[in-house]
Amino acid sequence: MPGERVKVTVRFADGAAPASATFWLVGHGGLGARRVEVFRQPRPPDVLKKERDEAQAEARQCQEDKARLLAEREEPGGLMGAAWLEGAGVVASMKLGFLTKPPANALGLDEARSYSYTPTGETHPASVAVRLRLLNPGAEPWTLAGAALVDSAGEQVELARWTLAPIPANGAGAVVVGIKGERAQLGCPCTLKLWEATGPRTFTLGNVEFPVSQQSGP
């Protein structure tokens, strides 16, 4: 019937590789064929294994790219990826420099930028956020599981977090973390700590500052 899908497997009798092949046959109202001929050229098993591994690697990369693109399409706006900017106010941002990075960090840092959001008429920020572009030199993907900010007085605050996707092995990715409310009024410079979902690989960034929003007069 038109549109009907039938899975067909053919097996070759000569004992060479590949030993079989599988096809999906799809019914068509005007282009039907009563006979399907299958030809194949035998190839060494090591060649087939290499092609299989390459196909699996390509499929994994496609899945990672798809997840990244979907996340970018759904990225919210404002602080925490523009998620907290939902009313009148002032958002300030600055590129972070003079940062300290322990040698034991599991990730490298490509770029860091901090943000603050101050509602109109107020002098203290209602929320702050940090956006990082991180480099993963490891052989396994790195998935953000938690984040905390320690201020100059030693007070530690757990951060909300948002990430585009797990940072791929030998690749790069973006991470956004932040806090909202009275707890945003921390004394800086601060220390930012990130840790992964499984395993001991952590990332620490010292001397983190947040910009001061410049309010305009009435």
Structural summary, described in words:
With 218 residues, the protein is of the alpha+beta class. The chain has two domains: 5-72, no CATH class; 79-208, Sandwich (Immunoglobulin-like). The protein contains two helices and twelve strands. The protein is elongated, with a radius of gyration of 26 Å.
In short:
The longest helix has 29 residues, at 45-73. The chain has helices spanning 45-73, 79-83; strands at residues 5-11, 20-26, 77-78, 89-95, 108-119, 127-136, 144-150, 156-158, 160-163, 171-180, 190-196, 202-208.
Q: Quickly give the CATH architecture of the largest domain.
A: Sandwich
> Which overall shape is indicated by the principal axes computed on the Cα atoms?
elongated
Largest sheet: 5 strands, antiparallel
- What is the H/E order? EEHEHEEEEEEEEE
Please tell me the overall pLDDT: 78
Radius of gyration over all CA atoms, rounded: 26 Å
Helical segment tally? 2
Helix content: 10-25%
CATH fold-level name of the largest domain = Immunoglobulin-like
Low confidence ranges: 75-79, 81-88
Q: Can you count the beta strands?
A: 12
Secondary structure class reads alpha+beta
Task: Please tell me the total number of domains.
Answer: 2
Strand content is 35-45%
CATH top level assignment of the largest domain: Mainly Beta
Order of strands, main sheet, comes to: 4-5-6-10-9
Distance between the termini: 72 Å
Secondary structure layout:
Blueprint: E1 5-11, E2 20-26, H1 45-73, E3 77-78, H2 79-83, E4 89-95, E5 108-119, E6 127-136, E7 144-150, E8 156-158, E9 160-163, E10 171-180, E11 190-196, E12 202-208
Antiparallel strand pairs: 1-2, 4-5, 5-6, 6-10, 7-8, 7-11, 9-10, 11-12
